[in-house]
Amino acid sequence: MSDFAAVRGAVPAVQNALFLVFYIGGERFALKATEVAEVLARLPLKPIAHAPVWVAGIFAHRGALVPVIDLCALTFGTPAQARTSTRLVLVNYQPQPWVEARWLGLILEHATDTLRCGVEEFQPYGLDNREAPYLGRVREDAVGLMQWIGVNELLTEPVRALLFSTELSV
């Protein structure tokens, strides 16, 4: 093996990924596109009694009942604004690797852009926010900071039990 081949083999490959970019208030966030099942217009939802205020409701989609959370309300306590760019994004929610993924709907503001970048561009931000474990690494660019949202960390066990059957419980 030549020295060039040895050095070339030692260089880690950059792992590019596609992200759906959206806003909560004036702050940018991102979801990994492989976790996104479908992007829909905002739809009417049936409310769920005794659910947290950030649980927007439920709707029927392709033969499945899909619970929906308002990520703006979950994160900062203010419901998403009804804009033409506010979307209902279906994500593949799988909190445990041994259970089958289910759809979870997210209401997201300005969910109209994508970004392709290396996953290593998102760096730890140094805070241990136990109240919001879904808030992941951050990426800085010319516009400012963007934070990666961890789909599988969005729901606590009590909310997961409320929104899904016991097959998704820990």
Strands, helices and their partners?
Layout: H1 3-10, E1 16-24, E2 27-32, E3 36-41, E4 55-61, E5 64-70, H2 71-76, E6 87-93, E7 102-118, E8 135-141, E9 144-149, H3 157-163
Parallel strand pairs: 2-9, 5-7
Antiparallel strand pairs: 1-2, 1-7, 3-6, 4-5, 6-7, 8-9
What does this structure look like?
- With 170 residues, the protein is mainly β.
- It has a single domain (14-168), classed as CheA-289, Domain 4 (OB fold (Dihydrolipoamide Acetyltransferase, E2P), Beta Barrel), CATH 2.40.50.
- The chain is 12% helix and 42% strand.
- It has three helices and nine strands.
- It has helices at 3-10, 71-76, 157-163, and strands at residues 16-24, 27-32, 36-41, 55-61, 64-70, 87-93, 102-118, 135-141, 144-149.
- Strands 1, 2, 3, 4, 5, 6, 7, 8 and 9 form a nine-stranded mixed beta sheet that branches.
- A hairpin with a 2-residue loop joins strand 1 (16-24) and strand 2.
- The longest helix is centred in the N-terminal third of the chain and has 8 residues, at 3-10.
- The model is unreliable at 1-11 (pLDDT under 50).
- It comes from Pseudomonas antarctica.
- It holds the Pfam family CheW.
- This is Chemotaxis protein CheW.
- Residues 16-160 form the CheW-like domain.
